[in-house]
Structures are given as structure tokens and as C-alpha cells.
Design a protein that fits this description.
Bound molecules: NADPH dihydro-nicotinamide-adenine-dinucleotide phosphate, magnesium ion
Structural class: alpha/beta
Helix content: 40-55%
Number of domains: 3
Largest sheet: 4 strands, mixed
Number of helices: 14
């Protein structure tokens, strides 16, 4: 799902690379939202697959098996798949995750918003349907492998790493004048624009902190975030005896996608491996003045589930305003902080509750963004 995006394209690469191996994968279906060219090319390259067009139906290209709001549900109910990769960007990924689990398919989950907004309900659904949710986000894929191998019971602390983004060394007083294109020049990873901007503000790591707390049922006080510019170490776990175990691999999203598509087996990867010879690996504590959104995420986690939904929604709205040029880079954090200020102690008992909080937060964040300009 989201076949034309960064995760989608890399998933297709994994399928191509494994085509000649014993661990061959078959693409039976895919979704695109607005990218006609990808739909056409994929139909040509994988003639037995079926393509769902989730965007505006009147723009659907020839070859789409379904188009419009029901397209994803049709794809999932009329296609037999063992596992589905969710590479849709943003909050739209949540309803897609729900559809996958309702159809009793395993979910390889890159869309972190699904976890941030509704993990408790998703997990319940997955358990009822006896399906696995396998994280694809690189840090969480690392934590997943480590905790599965070591045993969650003896893990006392988790660490996720961050590259620090393109402004890691920029004087703090210059942050207010950086542009969206500057923010998208990520030093290590090539990703979609939204997540690239989130890496620059570290809202991405804030979302990942929430994601780790939810996936591994760990209080935020026992989850560390460290800046590691080389992005070789993706995750670490500390065990009760004090030892620290790390998951180390090249910064290449195809590896976590490959691992998720193999799980619970471990299979040979066609993507090479990390060699530490001659590598200098550095780790730093992030600075609060440079990355306030990381601290705001910790506070949201302490406050509750609704606040985590608000954090995500307000950040999405603030990033859209930054992309349009109507707020400055440094105002992304202030819009999120201001949106979280009101009383958000609302119940989160259903997917409708989640969508309600999400939409309220978007309206309030948009107001806050407009007032900041
Ligand atoms: P991209 O923006 O590159 O791709 C997202 C895809 O989602 C697009 O191809 C788009 O389709 C589709 N899409 C957008 N809106 C909708 C919608 N309303 N309904 C259905 N499909 C939609 O994003 P990324 O691939 O970078 O990220 C995808 C997810 O994975 C995000 O949640 C991100 O946080 C997460 N992630 C990404 C990583 C990366 O390295 N890229 C790493 C870890 C996590 P179309 O192009 O057809 O319009
Ligand atoms: Mg990540």
C-alpha cells in the first residue's frame, strides 16, 4: 500500500531482488493514490497483480482494478495475500492498517502514524484475527529483532538512534530561516518529504518514541534517544544485568522491509552487510533547544493516548503550513505545543474516537498556525 512512495518503491526492490532466490516473493496487489505512471508500470512489470487507485476516481488510469474510496477494501478482500506492507504516508495509513487486519493478513507496518494513533486497538484486532504486526520503521525493526531474540522479559531499557537531520550542526539562531527544501536534504536517508522535515525537527523521533513505547510496552523514561550521525546502529536494548545489545546494519530501508517479509524466519539478504572496520561511530544526547518536539512527545506520552494523537495531527498540519511558506521552521514546534495546551483528556475507546480527536486537533492546529503568521 503506497506503492509509489519511498517505502513502496523499496518494497518493490526487495521483491525484485528476491525473485531469483529460494525466498521468492510474489506481488499480488498494490495501491497508489495519485501516481498514474507507477500504476501503469507495475501492471506491465507484474501482469498478475491488481492495482487499487485510492485517489480521485475520475483521474484513475487505465489498468486500475478498482478506483475511489472503496478501492483499498476491495483490493484487500478480493486478493489473497500473506502479508501487506503499509507504506502509506500520514494518518490515512491507520484505516488501511485496520482493513488489513480485518482481512486477517499479517501487517508489515512502516506507517508509524498507525501505531501512534491507535496501537491499542490495532493490537486487539490483530490478536483477535491471529495476525502479526511487524514493524518496518528501521529503529523498531531493530528493537523487534533484539527483543524477540533476547526475550522481552529481561529487557530494562530501549534506545533508538537519530541521525540528527540536516541541521544537526547549524547555529540554533539560524534555524528560523531554513526552507522546506533545506529541511528535505537529509544527510543519510532518502525518504518522502513529510518524514524528511520531521527528521529535521526530530518530530519523527518524537513519533518513534511513542511508537516504541506502544510496540514494546515500555514507559518513556526507559526509552533513550541518541543522536548517531552515521546511522549504522539503529536500536539498542539493555538487559537487567546492564549489558547493552545493538542492531547494526547499513542505513538502507530495504533491509528492515526484507526482514519483515521473512519473519519469523531469518533469510539471506541480497543487500550486503555493514562492515565496521574503519568506521567511527559517535553517539550524543540531543539538545532540547534544537529539538523541542522530542520533549513535547515525551510530555504527550506522559499525558495520555489522546495527546499522542494530537501531537501527530498538529505536527502534520504545522508541516503543511511550513511547506506552504506560511510559518517558519521553528514555529512547527510552537504550533504543536500550543495545540496540546488545551484539555485533551478525551476517551480513546474506538477508531471513531481516534478520528474525532485527530480532526479536532487539525482544526485547532490550523488556527494556531494561521495566528502564528
Ligand atoms: P512517501 O510520501 O514517499 O509515500 C507515501 C505514499 O502514500 C505515496 O506514494 C502516496 O501515493 C500514498 N498516499 C498518500 N496519501 C494517501 C492517502 N490518503 N491514501 C492512500 N495513499 C496515500 O512516504 P514514505 O514512503 O517516506 O513514508 C510512508 C510511511 O512510512 C510514513 O508513515 C513514514 O513515516 C514511514 N516510514 C518511512 C521511511 C522511509 O525511509 N521513507 C522510514 C520509516 C518509516 P501516491 O504517490 O500515489 O500519491
Ligand atoms: Mg525510523
Amino acid at each position: 500500500m503506497g506503492a509509489a512512495g519511498s517505502i513502496g518503491r523499496q518494497t518493490l526492490d526487495v521483491i525484485r531482488e528476491r525473485a531469483a532466490s529460494d525466498e521468492k516473493l510474489e506481488l499480488v496487489g498494490f495501491s497508489v493514490h495519485s501516481n498514474c505512471e507507477t500504476l501503469r508500470l507495475l501492471k506491465h512489470e507484474f501482469p498478475h497483480s491488481r492495482g487499487a487507485w485510492t485517489g480521485e476516481p475520475s483521474l484513475a488510469p487505465e489498468g486500475a482494478s478498482w478506483a475511489g474510496p472503496e478501492a483499498l477494501a476491495r483490493l484487500l478482500s478480493e486478493t489473497e495475500a500473506d502479508i501487506v506492507v503499509n507504506g502509506i504516508a500520514g494518518a490515512a495509513g491507520l484505516s488501511a492498517s485496520i482493513l488489513v487486519l480485518q482481512r486477517s493478513m499479517h501487517l508489515a507496518l512502516a506507517n508509524k502514524e498507525s501505531v501512534v494513533m491507535g496501537y491499542r486497538l490495532l493490537k486487539k484486532l490483530a490478536d483477535e484475527q491471529r495476525c502479526n504486526i511487524i514493524p518496518v520503521d528501521s529503529e523498531h525493526a531493530g528493537l523487534f529483532q533484539l527483543t524477540q531474540r533476547i526475550g522481552r522479559a529481561i529487557v530494562s531499557e530501549l534506545t533508538i538512534t537519530a541521525s540528527g537531520g540536516p541541521f544537526r550542526s547549524l547555529p540554533i539562531d539560524q534555524l528560523s530561516s531554513v526552507t522546506p527544501d533545506d529541511a528535505c536534504k537529509h544527510p543519510v536517508w532518502k525518504m518522502g518529504r513529510k518524514i524528511s522535515i520531521d527528521s529535521a525537527t526530530m518530530a519523527n523521533k518524537g513519533l518513534e518514541l511513542i511508537e516504541a513505547a506502544r510496540l514494546f510496552d515500555m514507559p518513556q523514561t526507559r526509552i533513550r534517544v541518541l543522536i548517531h550521525p552515521q546511522s549504522y546502529v539503529h536500536a539498542m536494548v539493555r538487559t537487567l544485568d546492564g549489558a547493552l545489545y545493538a542492531q547494526i546494519s547499513k542505513p538502507d530501508m530495504r533491509l528492515p522491509i526484507h526482514m519483515a517479509l521473512s519473519w519469523p524466519k531469518t533469510t539471506a539478504s541480497p543487500f550486503g552487510f555493514a562492515d565496521l572496520v574503519g568506521k567511527n561511530l559517535e553517539f550524543y544526547e540531543p539538545q532540547k533547544e534544537r529539538y523541542p518536539l522530542l520533549w513535547i512527545a515525551r510530555q504527550a506520552l506522559d499525558e495520555g493516548e489522546a495527546q499522542c494523537i494530537v501531537y501527530n495531527a498538529a505536527n502534520e498540519v504545522a508541516v503543511e503550513h511550513f511547506e506552504k511558506g506560511s510559518i517558519r521552521f521553528t514555529q512547527i514546534a510552537s504550533v504543536v505545543a500550543r495545540t496540546l495546551e488545551r484539555n485533551w483528556n478525551l476517551p480513546v475507546e474506538s477508531f471513531e474516537d481516534i478520528l474525532h480527536i485527530d480532526s479536532m486537533a487539525r482544526t485547532i492546529a490550523a488556527n494556531n498556525a494561521e495566528r502564528s503568521t
